Structures are given as structure tokens and as C-alpha cells.
Amino acid sequence: MKITERSFARRIDLTSLQLFVAVCEAGSIGKAAEREFIAASAVSKRLADLESALGTTLLYRHARGVDLTPAGQSLLHHARSVLYGLEKMQGELGEYADGVRGHVRVHASISAIVQFLPEDLGHFVRQHPQIRIDLEEHLSGDVLRAVQEGAADLGICNADALAQSGSALQVQPYRQDRLALVVPAGHALAVHTAIGFADTLDEDHVGLHANSSIALAMHHAATEAGRAIRLRIRVTGLDAMCRMIANGLGVGVMPLRAFELMHGAAALRALPLSDSWARREISLIARDFASLPVTARALVEHLRQAPAP
């Protein structure tokens, strides 16, 4: 008999899901029972009832413990999502009790964090001091994955990464930036006011993480030019890139505004790249903007209306 959505929800209880996850993690009913301070027979009964409610076998039971069936693997994925959602709900409701009106989880690329978010988020939290923002820096691909899987309410990253991923996520405009080649002030290329990326390929490069949106765009451009990038070293941050370039380890590509904000004491010059791909759209990403919590929607509206620097 096919289970309707309503009867399915009524027949699945959270305790059984928690015990199922515990058994999967422990590898046996006995170990899970010890961990959860419950009799093994009670755990076994819960699992049997769960299999009966779902109409399928979830575990292969053997002398050494248990293994997941294909249906069990699927349930484990969904059960963890459900339990994570409950923990999130408990945390947010607890914040209301403490006087906080909610929080927003934001994952963003380093370009967005360095260039735009300090000012924009600073203005927002001054207007809404009881809203907490949890901000994490990630590569653009990881930002999209976090939003897709529900680990972040809002993502902020290069819009090209979304087109390449094929994810069915929603996009709203946020900022634009431009990439530039950073060189020592006395470098032969420093006489230029702008430069094409292909004209940099005879130089050693200081690069970012191989999966960063900038590194991927550079690799694609070099391939189209029939050349390879002479990569001397990779770094994880823009400040480290500037220090490496200042000490003669090569040239590097980074957002122009980020360079203007941070290069400071280093004797460096930034030459805007003339390539079309060097002008980028930084976008706001969500699974569904309309269904975001009120606090997250308020942040999206603020970011969209904030004046460009």
C-alpha cells in the first residue's frame, strides 16, 4: 500500500530517526544502544518499526554488526538533514528567548569578503544589532554547494561559478569587480596602464587556490591562447599574494579594488586586465529568496540597496 505524504509524516518519529543514525554511525545495534543509554532490544524494535513504516529493509544485520541497504543509505542522508534542521531551529528559537531576533548564515568568496562585505555588513549590523551574521570564507564552488545543501542561507560569489556548476539556484545582482595584474613597481610591465592576460604568460605567476574562480578563469584564458601559466607558487590569500609579488616571486592576478584596499606598504602596481572575462559579476545566491527567513531577506534587501563603493 502506498504511503501518503500525511500518513508518512505521522508514522515516522524523531526518536527512531535519531536511533537509526546512531546505529549507522556506531556500526552495530549494541554499540548504538550503549551510546544512547537505551536497551539494545528497544533499539532493535524501533528499527523494525521504522522499516515497517517505510515498507523496505534499511539494514543488513550480521554477526559483526549492520550494513546499510541502498534504502538505508538514502534514509541516512535525509535523516541527518532533518536532525540538522531541528538543531538549527532549536538554536534560532533559543536566540529569540535570549533577545536575539535571529541570525543569517552567509558563505562568501574571498573577493566579496575583501572588497565589499566589511562595509556593507557593518552598516547592516549597526541598523539591526540583534541580528547575528555568521560569515564564512569559501571558494565559489563551495559557496554554491553550501547553499544547495542548506548549510548556508545566502551565498555571495562570482556569478560565472553558478553557470559552470549547473545548479538550479536563484541569483540576484550585488556588485561588479575587475581583475588586474599586480607587479612590482620596477617590473618591465609596470609601464603599461592596462594589459591583456595573454601578454603576461611569459612571466612567473603567483596564483590562488587551483579551484578558485580567478584561477579557473586564468587557466581557461591561457588554454584559449594556446599557452600554459608559469605558476611558481600558490597562496591562499590576497595579502600573501602581494607579499610574494613584492619579494620578486612573480606577478599575480587579483581584484583591482582588493589591491587598492590592501597593498599599502608594498611597492606594487596594479594593471587592469583588458580581457572581457576580467570584468566580473559578484552575485547573491539562494535556493529560494522568497522562502528565506525574515532576517535573511532583510540582509538581501540591504545588500542590494547598499551604495557601490
Topology:
Layout: H1 5-11, H2 14-26, H3 29-36, H4 40-54, E1 59-62, E2 65-68, H5 70-97, E3 103-108, H6 110-115, H7 117-127, E4 132-137, H8 140-149, E5 154-158, H9 159-165, E6 170-184, E7 204-207, H10 213-224, E8 230-234, H11 238-246, E9 252-255, H12 256-262, E10 268-272, E11 279-286, H13 294-305
Parallel strand pairs: 3-4, 3-5, 7-8
Antiparallel strand pairs: 1-2, 5-11, 6-9, 6-10, 6-11
List keywords for this structure.
47% helix, alpha/beta, Arc Repressor Mutant, subunit A, 13 helices, 11 strands, D-Maltodextrin-Binding Protein, domain 2
Structural class: alpha/beta
Tally of distinct domains: 3
In angstroms, what is the radius of gyration?
25 Å
Q: So what's the overall shape? A: elongated
CATH architectural group of the largest domain: 3-Layer(aba) Sandwich
Low-pLDDT runs: none
Q: Report the sheet with the most strands, covering strand number, pairing sense and barrel closure.
A: 7 strands, mixed
CATH class of the largest domain: Alpha Beta
Strand content: 15-25%
Q: Please name the CATH topology of the largest domain.
A: D-Maltodextrin-Binding Protein, domain 2
Helix content: 40-55%
Number of strands: 11
Distance between the amino and carboxyl termini: 61 Å
| Helix run count | 13
- Mean pLDDT value: 88
